[in-house]
Amino acid sequence: MKTKFLKYSLLSMLATLTVITLKAQQTAYDQSELYNNYDVIGKDASGRTVETFHTFYKDHEYKLKSVGGKITSLYVDGVKIQPDKYAQYETVISHIKEQIRLDRIQARKDQAQALKDEAQARVDQKQAMRDQEQAEKDRQQAEKEQVQAKKDQQDALKDQAQAKLDQEQAVKDQEQAVKDQAQAKLDQEQAVKDQAQAKLDQKQAEEDQRMMKEMISDLIKDGIVPDEKSLYAVTLNSSEMTVNDKKQPEEVYKRYKEKYSRWAGNNFSYSDGPYNSRGIHMSRREE
Q1: What is the H or E stretch that residue 284 is in?
Q2: Of the candidates 89, 99, 86, which has an alpha carbon nearest to the alpha carbon of residue 30?
Q3: Rg of the chain, C-alpha, whole Å
Q4: Residue ranges of the domains in the chain?
């Protein structure tokens, strides 16, 4: 089973919404697939590093919290593991953390590349406009040379041969100008396509944000959570729904699955942890 993650380009208006997407990768040490729902790192009041993650690894679900590098709670397949058993899970937890580290590095690279691509698109668009302007100048210059060639031919027969050469050259210049103009048009069309795609990505991100607000409103209205501040985690997929890590009744699940069918089909999860780290994440699984 392979997982393809849906990527969203959240622009400045969504800068306060941090989306952490950790890609599924085949690792060299275990050849297994790793799926992360979320990974949140922050600081507590005393400045210690606090990390929580929820992930599926080798067909098992792991939920861990550590403070200052020490595990404070561990759940495997929903079962709480006692501290004296933590050592049995050191290897798998080490593998999971290493994959998370690699995914963060890749995410930063992808973000940097996206910024470069956007900047290059702007450069290409400006260059396309300059090429088009130059093409028009070349065309006008070719026409001037062609007119001059005709005048030279009328002035003297001895200049006729040279005038013909000038005319041939002018034709070549004009052909090149047409080619340059056509290329400039193609470059401009590509820039327009890139801009259109960026607008689509932004619209999708705005729609997801609107739907998230609507879901929170539904959860409050249905009495599942008392208010927005009390909500810190939601998952919705093709088999179940959880709110604040609590599995919801089948009737509630079916109602939300029907209303938010696109999210349910894409393994939706939402987190708003105690350290102001908020994220929406979806992954589409294909058999």
Answers
A1: strand 283-286
A2: 99
A3: 30
A4: 2-112
Region at 78 (left for phi over 0; alpha for psi -120 to 50; beta for the rest) = left
Specify whether the CB–CB gap between 234 and 215 falls below 8 A. yes
Task: Report CA-CA distances (Å) from 217 to 29, 163, 225, 249, 257.
Answer: 44, 80, 10, 18, 16
* CA dist., res. 152 & res. 249, Å (int): 93
| Cα(171)–Cα(142) distance, integer angstroms | 7
Determine phi and psi for 238, rounding to 5 degrees. Answer: -75, -5
Is residue 53 within 8 Å of 63, Cβ to Cβ?
Answer: yes
Identify the sign of the CA torsion 267, 5, 203, 38.
positive
Residue with tokens 């450069």, as numbered in its chain: 123
Q: Which residue has the tokens 């609107």?
A: 210
Q: What is the DSSP letter of 220?
A: H
For residue 29, give both structure tokens: 């040490």
- Digits of tens for pLDDT over the chain (287 positions)? 433 333 333 333 333 333 344 443 333 334 344 455 788 989 999 999 999 999 999 999 999 999 998 999 999 999 999 999 999 999 999 999 898 889 889 989 999 999 999 999 999 999 999 989 998 998 999 899 886 848 867 763 573 635 286 489 868 988 997 898 889 898 889 978 988 988 887 887 888 899 999 999 999 999 999 999 999 999 999 999 999 999 999 999 999 999 999 999 899 999 886 544 567 887 655 44
Beta bridge partners of 60: 57
Tell me phi and psi for residue 21, to 5 degrees.
-115, 115
